[in-house]
Amino acid sequence: xxxxxxxxxxxxxxxxxxxxxxxxxxxxxxxxxxxxxxxxxxxxxxxxxxxxxxxxxxxxxxxxxxxxxxxxxxxxxxxxxxxxxxxxxxxxxxxxxxxxxxxxxxxxxxxxxxxxxxxxxxxxxxxxxxxxxxxxxxxxxxxxxxxxxxxxxxxxxxxxxxxxxxxxxxxxxxxxxxxxxxxxxxxxxxxxxxxxxxxxxxxxxxxxxxxxxxxxxxxxxxxxxxxxxxxxxxxxxxxxxxxxxxxxxxxxxxxxxxxxxxxxxxxxxxxxxxxxxxxxxxxxxxxxxxxxxxxxxxxxxxxxxxxxxxxxxxxxxxxxxxxxxxxxxxxxxxxxxxxxxxxxxxxxxxxxxxxxxxxxxxxxxxxxxxxxxxxxxxxxxxxxxxxxxxxxxxxxxxxxxxxxxxxxxxxxxxxxxxxxxxxxxxxxxxxxxxxxxxxxxxxxxxxxxxxxxxxxxxxxxxxxxxxxxxxxxxxxxxxxxxxxxxxxxxxxxxxxxxxxxxxxxxxxxxxxxxxxxx
Length: 518
Ligand code: BG6
Description:
By secondary structure, the chain is α/β, with parallel strands linked by helices. 36% of the residues lie in helices and 20% in strands. The protein contains 16 helices and 19 strands. The strands form four sheets. Strands 8-12-13-7-14-15-16-17-19 form a nine-stranded mixed beta sheet, sandwiched between helices. Strands 3-2-1-4-5-6 form a six-stranded parallel beta sheet. Strand 10 and strand 11 form a beta hairpin. The protein is globular. The protein binds 6-O-phosphono-beta-D-glucopyranose. The site of 6-O-phosphono-beta-D-glucopyranose has 4 residues, from loops.
């Protein structure tokens, strides 16, 4: 996983080159890799899209994207100039065989100019319905042939449900070897998400308590304050369960719950993760409401400003039943996790953008101290903060200073930025570099994608067949519908306020201690 040398010469062919993903994520990530000297000296990016555009206009458009979205802020003139020389644009009709012949020719020309064979990465930054056509086109132009050098990157959502994901896997599998297919879930590229593996398996003290004997329950929250913005068309056909839980949240759950891999070889890690998905208890079709709830935001206030209801967003159907919030309770049927609930929740227009995992430990078996000295009833809690800050925090009880015995919660904390004096790279930087290296550890294998769909299938089916009667059922700027509180309360728990917010708002019941720099 640790890169030591730059990857070999590489060409990125981006289908959807003029689109939003390329603009906001892919090119800013490539730019940062370029500045950090991670891109090969010989690299070339060919953007393809339907729009007619000159190379200059294409580069200008990308420049605006990098200025707006790069973690480094505005570009510097000389650096941008050096970077942008590696880009070209081609207007393309993806339904035409001649498009793929033209791509093949351009790639061959570039390789001739370089005098070597490069890795060829075909990035599908397009709606899922186009993937089959594109992969077919690539195959007809023999651009899939070299198993070592040709790679295809497929964005989420991978399919729309289990059947379509299986069909897509089958059709890709006829044209590409599994080792050539990189199914992206950008959460797996986030440093803190990767750090879950390091935390669990590079330290000896956590693993012995990482089980049902010590852990009471786990909460995974991915909250967003944004609405659907300009993605209404896509989102209205997806919803929170498909958009977030099927992929990002289930992948995080896998990392929390998996057994120790014997090595960091891609398939070994992926085997261990898929084992978790296989052992998730199937939700009985007739009892879905006990395990999953959905919500849709109505209008409300965010940061003092009024924001519209989901139904008033652009490109959303008038009577849409699409959920913008989902909460799910899952159990993992194995020795380690039997009967430990995993609560997952995600939603748009929640009070803040914050993602974190809370591992809530059991209460002490016997209270040595009388209740009069305890200033709260909280048990130990380990928080893996994914964003906005990336870090790991542990809450525990300590004696208040002064005479007498009074106990309250304190926190030990590790923040990436503070500890390593640097901001972690963006997820796409990590993942694009991995694709260039041919390292699939952080990508979804075919069976993982299908198993994730299997987990949520009963919920999808139930929701499809019973339309919600109460939408919109939460106000923008709140923590989702009341039904989510009821869902978790049935298990004797309640949603934990993300630690970052408690500390930010100064409402923490604990005192926040800063670990001094070494
Ligand atoms: C994407 C979803 O995969 O993840 C979006 O399609 C969501 O709806 C986004 O906003 C969240 O990603 P992040 O990295 O901002 O948490």
